Amino acid sequence: MTLIKVTEAVQELLGCDFILVIDTEGLKAPELTALEDSYQHDNELATLVIGLSDITIVNMTMENATEMKDVLQIVVHAFLKMKEIGQQPNCQFVHQNVSDVSAHDQNMRDRKHLLEQLNEMTKAAARMEKQSREMAFSDIMEYDPEKHNWYMPDLRHGVPPMAPVNTGYSESVCELKKYLFEFIENRSRKRAGKDIPDFIVWLKSLWKSVKHENFIFSFRNSLVAEAYHQLSMKYSEWEWGFRKEMYLWISEKETFIQNQLPETLEGDLFHSLKMEAQGKLEQGEQKLLNN
After folding, report:
1. DSSP secondary structure string, 49-63?
2. CB 3.0–4.6 Å: which of 115, 179, 266, 284 could bond 242 by disulfide?
3. Cα(35)–Cα(189) distance, integer angstroms
4. How far apart are CA 72 and CA 160, in angstroms?
5. Strands 149-151, 90-95: parallel, antiparallel or unpaired by DSSP?
6. Of the ranges 13-17, 36-40, 239-243, which is most confident?
7. By three-state DSSP, how is residue 5 classified?
8. Sorting pLDDT into bands at 50, 70 and 90, what band is 290?
9. What per-residue string of b and e applies to 232-248 under the rule 16 or more CB within 10 Å gives b?
10. DSSP one-letter code for 83
11. Extents of the domains making up the chain
12. Long-range contacts from 96-100, C-beta under 8 angstroms, 24+ separation
């Protein structure tokens, strides 16, 4: 986390004295995937950081693009549940190490595919939260596929360390930086930036909401969470059906036993009731396995 002082020349233009930069230090890092709670850690951290930020820059390198989509899906789900969220973060996707940044048609297809995936996961999260209307990713976060995707070429031409620096990389970074400052300027006209006391209050409120999201944060993405949710509901129905059937059988047999003479309860009758009960249990287990 870094607090950057804004020069006096641009303070009035940007409408702020400082810019707070929060770095998650690599979500979905390969060395952390073996940890049991890596999903929970990354999902909680991503939700907290995006909730605190006016602008979120998502680094979509080739090796972790799928994992980052999973993180965003969980973030979307969490934001749906935070009714008092009070803001709509802006998402910027930076695609690293793109071999041909000028391949417009290919990049456009990638952008559409990314948006389709995010919309699908948003709908899944909305279904779990029983939202009354169809929702898209742009309903949760401010996102325009044409404006909010950036393609960065490799930093160097060839194999480092002797390979020369790629000037196209610096140009792309400069364009992104220029856009971010323009965005801050436009945003400051619509609403004032947070001062430190406001930021602390917002941080506490957001963290309180994050702590109540233990269920959803433990899943890889919204589709997995929805599948588990549906399975849990079905299992509850099957379990209740089995319990109901066993309760009715026990009530029936209790009435039957109460109407029998004591001497008739020994021997074959007792053994047959025992075998019937065992058969009922095995039948119920088989139903659960078949479902």
Report:
1. HHHH-SEEEEEE-TT
2. 284
3. 44
4. 32
5. parallel
6. 13-17
7. strand
8. low
9. eeeeeeeeeebeeeeee
10. T
11. 2-220, 230-290
12. 96/59, 96/60, 96/61, 96/62, 96/152, 97/61, 97/62, 97/152, 97/153, 97/154, 98/151, 98/152, 98/153, 99/153, 99/154
Region 24-41: mean pLDDT is 66
Which residues, 6+ apart, have CB-to-CB distance to 57 below 8 Å? 92, 94
Contacts of 67 (CB under 8 A, 6+ apart): 27, 28
User: 């026990």: which residue's tokens?
Assistant: 250
Query: Do residues 101 and 150 lie in contact, with contact meaning Cβ atoms separated by under 8 Å?
Result: no
Cβ atoms of 94 and 111 closer than 8 Å: no
Rounded Cα gap, residues 56 and 93, in angstroms? 8
* Strands of the 90-95 sheet, one edge to the other: 55-60, 90-95, 149-151
User: In this predicted structure, what is the pLDDT of residue 47?
Assistant: 80
